[in-house]
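User: Here's a structure from my thesis project, written as structure tokens. My advisor, Dr. K., wants to see whether a designed sequence matches the one we expressed. Can you design one independently, without my sequence as a hint?
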């Protein structure tokens, strides 16, 4: 009995890992924006309240912060602010991506 449990344990743990990855993918939305400067692809993870995107070949992971209107994600330097079908990206209070419009929004 103990030998079969020891043999099965790695498979059970691997199953948990795959389940967590499956749940992660199910709670992540990919949003495509067209901005004045260039396109922007944002991955939103609602369960972890995070947004991530690549800017200048750097992956940015931002946590949801306080916002009076719309939704705001930040890491203290970068800010992704969205409201409705539009978004703006700031770096240290300077706009780096402006007039971003969501492509194929869900209605």
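Assistant: Designed independently from the structure alone:
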């Amino acid at each position: 009995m103990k030998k079969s449990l020891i043999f099965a344990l790695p498979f059970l743990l691997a199953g948990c890992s795959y389940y967590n990855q499956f749940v992660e993918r199910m709670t992540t939305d990919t949003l495509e924006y067209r901005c004045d400067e260039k396109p922007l692809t944002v991955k939103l993870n609602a369960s972890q309240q995070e947004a991530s995107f690549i800017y200048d070949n750097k992956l940015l992971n931002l946590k949801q912060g306080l916002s009076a209107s719309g939704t705001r994600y930040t890491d203290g330097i970068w800010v992704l602010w969205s409201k409705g079908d539009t978004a703006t990206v700031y770096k240290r209070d300077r706009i780096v991506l402006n007039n971003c419009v969501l492509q194929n929004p869900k209605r």
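When you compare it with your expressed construct, this may help: Residues 2-26 form the longest helix (25 residues).
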